[in-house]
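Incident log, support desk, overnight shift.

02:14 A customer reports that sequence design results differ from what the structure should imply. Their input is reproduced verbatim below. On-call engineer (initials T.W.) acknowledged and began investigating.
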């Protein structure tokens, strides 16, 4: 007999009708309907117990799956994800695994499927990426070898005032050293927070920034009052190229997380409280994939270079001629005035000969320009470290 797949329920009812007629044996009826004796007796048992309802198709899915995630683990994963809605499966597992090491946690793919089933994963749009610029930047190979600083884009709080978030982070550990909401990105408001960071965490070797104020200026060497202060403290200011934020990629990636986690608040004080909470979470709770799922606080340690009580003046090697910049931003060389910029007013600069009639101008350890005696002009150069040690 041909099995009609279009209506299996009718065939099962016909099967039971033949059984009730009692003309043929069960084996003959099973052969007639093309099913095994085991299946035939199963239908007979279901029909005797539940009638026609017992013949309906039933799910073959296992009632208990050996690899199913425990409901308590599911609850912990979902609750943690809802508290940290920008954390992916790997961060969730690293965070919970460190706090509950005795638990048997599922695979990353399993957690991803779980989040997807509960609508907690949003599809990402493809992003175009630029090739990194191969600038000779310092390598962040230890804590405090490199700090990055920037102002996250300004916004208005609920009371209408602008907030300019100043952020400072350690390049090696990703430790967020400071996150302060300022009313304006001026040198006067910014420098005190760097001073506080230096007192709390010591001095870094290098600070990398963009080319905006107050980190840089359009003057000679791009120096600003803030970066000159850093140089006096023995910190090298390092600037990325214009239009290349990827050269400070670690810091920019932190900014993306900061923007997602800190919604706009009603006023600056409330906003700062949100920044403080984010800093604790980012440093002490949030695992970082680049750190093998460790937190920044596990890797960071303060610098052993302390902020001095008095800021020193620049010193230069014995073979350098030293000139103090006048209040109008000029130095006098061979009786002629040369303009360097008022940002250097009152500072000592060094000059040493590099060719006939040409002198290199140093501000601390940085070579910022050259003086052409024959043309009687200042020539711009690429800023670089020229004096590795001071005497």
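02:41 Re-run completed on a clean worker. Output:
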């Amino acid at each position: 007999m041909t099995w009609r797949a279009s209506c299996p329920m009718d065939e099962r009812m016909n099967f039971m009708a033949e059984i009730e007629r009692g003309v043929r044996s069960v084996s003959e009826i099973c052969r007639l309907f093309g099913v095994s004796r085991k299946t035939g007796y199963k239908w007979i048992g279901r029909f005797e117990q539940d009638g026609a309802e017992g013949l309906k198709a039933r799910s073959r899915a296992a009632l208990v799956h050996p690899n199913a995630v425990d409901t308590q683990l599911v609850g912990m994963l979902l609750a943690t994800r809802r508290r940290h809605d920008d954390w992916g499966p790997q961060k969730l597992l690293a965070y919970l695994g460190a706090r509950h090491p005795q638990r048997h946690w599922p695979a990353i793919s399993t957690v991803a499927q779980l989040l997807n089933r509960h609508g907690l994963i949003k599809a990402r749009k493809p992003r175009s990426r630029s090739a990194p610029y191969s600038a000779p930047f310092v390598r962040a190979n230890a804590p405090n070898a490199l700090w990055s600083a920037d102002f996250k884009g300004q916004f208005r709080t609920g009371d209408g005032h602008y907030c300019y978030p100043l952020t400072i982070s350690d390049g090696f550990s990703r430790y967020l050293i400071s996150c302060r909401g300022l009313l304006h990105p001026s040198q006067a408001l910014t420098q005190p927070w760097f001073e506080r960071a230096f007192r709390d965490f010591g001095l870094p070797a290098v600070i990398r920034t963009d080319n905006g104020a107050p980190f840089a200026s359009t003057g000679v060497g791009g120096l600003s009052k803030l970066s000159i202060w850093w140089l006096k403290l023995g910190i090298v200011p390092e600037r990325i190229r214009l239009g290349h934020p990827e050269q400070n990629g670690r810091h920019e990636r932190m900014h993306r997380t900061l923007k997602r986690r800190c919604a706009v608040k009603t006023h600056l004080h409330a906003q700062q409280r949100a920044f403080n909470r984010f800093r604790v979470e980012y440093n002490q709770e949030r695992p970082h994939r680049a750190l093998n799922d460790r937190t920044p606080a596990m890797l960071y340690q303060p610098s052993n270079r302390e902020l001095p009580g008095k800021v020193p003046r620049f010193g230069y090697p014995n073979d350098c001629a030293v000139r103090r910049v006048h209040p109008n931003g000029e130095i006098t060389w061979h009786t002629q005035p040369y303009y360097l910029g008022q940002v250097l007013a009152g500072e000592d600069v060094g000059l040493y000969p590099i060719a006939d009639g040409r002198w290199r101008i140093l501000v601390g350890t940085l070579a910022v320009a050259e003086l052409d005696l024959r043309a009687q002009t200042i020539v711009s150069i690429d800023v670089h470290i020229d004096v590795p040690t001071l005497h």
